[in-house]
Amino acid sequence: MADYVRISTIGTPPLAVDAGLSDQAVVEQVIAHLQKELDQVLPDKPDLIVLPECCDRPGVFNYQPERLNAYYRVRGSQVLDRLAGVARAHRCYITYPAKWMMGDGTFRNSIQMLDRQGRVMGRYHKNHLISCEYTEGGVLYGKEAPLMACDFGKVACVICFDLNFDELRLKYAAAKPDLILFSSMYHGGLMQSYWAYSCRAHFVGAIAKTAVPSAIISPVGMTLASTTNYFDFVTATVNLDCCVAHLDGNWEKLRALKKKYGPEVTITDPGYLGSVLIASETKACRARDMVREFQIELLDDYFTRSLAHRHAPGHMEA
């Protein structure tokens, strides 16, 4: 029923700091930097704020792994606590992507999701590390791909190098999240739109580089909002009450759907794909109810039927 969610993404790089500062002084500078970044989007009253990978890592190239780990031990939960206070005060979800020390002293490259009360309501540990994260940084590989149940929908998380691996993508495609959150140091190029389309989910990228865009992408691969070379943040309202249908066999049905519901339904064609995004813009009826009413075949059902037809007895060459 027109599930609107207001999303802010921030693409700030690591804060450059003086390597001679104490670790606690660096923590305080990083917290001030992140607060300044948050202050840019809080006037938009977002439901969700997405931060980039390792958002509180200091930008000092001569920091050795042991120095970084010492910094993380001093940092502890200080950044998490500040973000939790912001989430609680502004009644919004916030992602906290960071290198995190577990109770046994080992590290993970993680995203912790803070709810509107500032509580950690879910965690994702990067499944696919770059090998040096393990060999030099002492980070262990994650093994779970959980969905986090927010009040606006189901959320999946992806971190940087993860975007290259079908193993994780196929888990999420089967789980059917409403939203994929991608915190990263690299952009990923066409893989962003591919993941959005493959998982039939909106995709939010928060990239820790001002030179490349952090964007919100629709389930048919269209960029809905993006940061620019001037602004490292952007906010947009997204409608999660949507579904994807192929055009084959649906042309007349889509016309009938639009004729009945008019502005209460949007049918968005990205071009060249052969698929469209159907979204309900009314509280009276969900997108899937509209689709069911007009017997519109959804994309996954169409592909399943096409595969079954291929494998039917006698349909394939000997």
Describe the structure.
The protein has 318 residues and is of the alpha/beta class. It has two domains: 4-239, Carbon-nitrogen hydrolase (Nitrilase/N-carbamoyl-D-aminoacid amidohydrolase, 4-Layer Sandwich); 242-311, no CATH class. 31% of the residues lie in helices and 26% in strands. It is built from nine helices and 15 strands. The chain has helices at 23-41, 65-75, 78-90, 131-135, 166-175, 190-199, 251-261, 287-293, 299-311, and strands at 4-10, 48-50, 93-101, 107-114, 120-125, 148-150, 153-159, 179-184, 202-207, 215-217, 223-226, 233-239, 242-246, 265-268, 275-280. The strands form three sheets. A six-stranded mixed sheet has the order 5-4-3-2-1-12. A six-stranded mixed sheet has the order 6-7-8-9-10-11, with helices on one face. Helix 1 (23-41) links the parallel strand 1 and strand 2 (48-50). Helix 1 (23-41) packs across helix 2 (65-75) and helix 1 packs parallel to helix 3 (78-90). The radius of gyration is 21 Å and the shape is globular.
Q: And the CATH topology of the largest domain?
A: Nitrilase/N-carbamoyl-D-aminoacid amidohydrolase
Whole-number total of structural domains: 2
Name the CATH architecture of the largest domain: 4-Layer Sandwich
Strand portion, in percent?
25-35%
Number of strands: 15
What's the helix count?
9
Instruction: Enumerate the strands of the largest sheet in spatial order, edge to edge or round the barrel.
Output: 5-4-3-2-1-12
- Report the major sheet: 6 strands, mixed
Low-pLDDT ranges: none
Distance between the amino and carboxyl termini: 49 Å
Query: What's the level 1 CATH class of the largest domain?
Result: Alpha Beta
SSE arrangement, N to C = EHEHHEEEHEEHEHEEEEEHEEHH
Global morphology: globular
Q: What's the pLDDT, averaged over the residues?
A: 96
Alpha carbon gyration radius: 21 Å
Structural class: alpha/beta
